[in-house]
Specification:
With 439 residues, this protein is an alpha/beta fold. The chain has ten helices and 18 strands. The protein has helices at 42-53, 86-93, 95-118, 137-152, 189-202, 255-258, 276-282, 321-334, 377-392, 420-438; strands at 32-38, 58-61, 77-78, 130-133, 158-161, 178-181, 185-186, 206-208, 213-218, 224-228, 231-240, 262-271, 288-291, 297-301, 308-313, 343-353, 360-364, 367-371. α2 crosses α3 (95-118) and α3 (95-118) packs across α9 (377-392).
């Protein structure tokens, strides 16, 4: 079926809400603040809230508008997944570290649900569970081994679904069965962001949007001077929370982080209105969904149950009909029943990876950082921002396993991911070989 390009809106489906996504104030940038946070997404907001409630004056400086980056461009899947498997983490860092990071992921997921309830944020959060489809028989066996360990040793609620039974989860023969992790949910990113914005505004946090940070330098006596396009501000404490939108060489302050963080584009489509009956026929369990491919695909019903969303890593900075066709082909490969379906939305956003492929919270040269969520920032960004604030406040009774180590720089790299086409090709080849040899 030929796509009707005229109906496609090249912007996030999530932005069609009535709630405000921006603060309404005309305050000039103050000369000083106890805490200056660079980046107005989930991480910056999560760090700002406990600091403001502890009595600190907190401002957020955002070069665009609040949440314009990954916070309102993501797929709304709350997995807190770890890119390396438990086995790989154990091999590199030891079993204790691997256990702790998986347990922390589970705690972070629960904390997100608790946060929505406690702060009365109607982000359409639903604890749906997450089905991870195995792309080969070998992948299924690997998932089964890991599932046994996570369930029996760490008490993380998960179980396997055989290929014979997977139609109870999703109406496809594309997978060789898969894993269900029951403590994973999904939300509406913009509605969650709007509620979060209300909460931090009530706490006294001010966001200064359309304000670019050029440099961060030492203050003569204490703290830092943050030099922006709208003046200078003295921050007693400075947090950089930019993640996949850290910027390029025009921003001097970002050089340290951008050498350690690779922005990777993720593109998403949303189908036309299908109706809840048809969506449920295709996705009987109405879960969040993903797969074991190196070039992972993630998909889900929209929160109202009327459409299907699908995302994958994409190469185009500005999405075009080429992006739509690429993603639609992925969708039809999983659900061929949708070959007659039009696409209503397509957009692109950045996620960010470090060399370790796990989130990190650290301090360098007196500046605090949290970054590297590897495509799972809907949970990790808020959790890590909160944990960073607790560290700054000296509330370290329950420190994060992600805290401390500075992530290492990527060789021959200064913020422009020139090597990503080669990475995509290599991962795509690995996926083909995996399905050919072990299918």
């Amino acid at each position: 079926m030929t796509l009707d390009a005229s109906r496609i809106a090249f912007r996030p489906y999530w932005w069609d809400i009535e709630e405000p996504l921006r603060q309404t104030h005309n305050d000039p940038l103050p000369p000083e603040a106890d805490v200056v946070i660079v980046g107005g997404g989930f991480t910056g907001m999560a760090a700002a809230l406990p600091l403001a409630r502890a009595g600190k004056s907190v401002i957020i400086i955002e070069k665009s508008t609040p949440g314009y980056g990954a916070s309102t461009r993501n797929g709304g899947i709350n997995s807190a997944s770890i890119r390396p498997s438990h086995h790989d983490l154990e091999r590199h860092y030891g079993r204790d570290f691997a256990d702790k990071i998986f347990l922390e992921a589970s705690a972070a997921r629960q904390d997100l649900e608790d946060f929505c309830q406690r702060e009365k944020i109607d982000g359409k959060f639903k604890l749906s569970g997450w089905f991870k489809g195995a792309m080969s028989a070998r992948d299924y066996d690997y998932l089964a081994h890991e599932t046994d360990y996570l369930r029996e040793t760490l008490n993380i609620p998960c179980h396997m679904i055989s290929k014979a039974d997977q139609h109870k989860e999703i109406a496809t023969d594309r997978f060789y069965g898969g894993m269900v992790e029951e403590d994973v949910g999904g939300f509406h990113p913009s509605k969650f962001f709007a509620g979060f914005l209300r909460v931090i505004t009530e706490a006294g946090v001010r966001i200064f949007e359309e304000t670019a940070v050029h440099d961060i330098i030492d203050h003569a006596s204490s703290g830092k001077i943050v030099i922006t396009s709208k003046g200078k501000v003295h921050g007693g404490t400075v947090i950089v929370a930019t993640n996949g939108y850290t910027g390029g060489r025009e921003h001097k302050f970002s050089r340290f982080l951008r050498r350690r963080l690779v922005p990777v584009r993720s593109s998403i489509i949303v189908t036309e209105h299908l109706g809840e009956e048809r969506v449920k026929a295709l996705m009987p369990a109405m879960r969040m969904y993903g797969n074991t491919a190196e070039l992972v695909t993630y998909f889900r019903p929209t929160p109202d149950g009327q459409r299907i969303l699908l995302g994958a890593r994409g190469a185009e900075a500005v999405p075009t009909i080429k992006t739509v066709n690429f993603l639609r082909k992925r969708l039809i490969s999983i659900l061929p029943q949708l070959s007659d379906t039009q696409i209503d939305y397509c957009w692109t956003g950045n996620v960010a990876f470090n060399r370790q492929l796990i989130p990190r919270i650290f301090t360098h040269d007196g500046i605090h950082y949290s970054s590297g969520y590897a495509g799972s920032g809907t949970v990790w960004a808020r959790w890590c921002g909160k944990k960073l604030a607790e560290h700054i406040l000296g509330q370290s009774n329950d420190p994060s396993i992600l805290s401390g180590d500075i992530t290492s720089a990527v060789p021959l790299y200064d913020g422009h991911p020139w090597f990503m086409p080669f990475v995509y090709s290599w991962y795509g080849l690995k996926d083909q070989i995996n399905e050919w040899r072990h299918g």
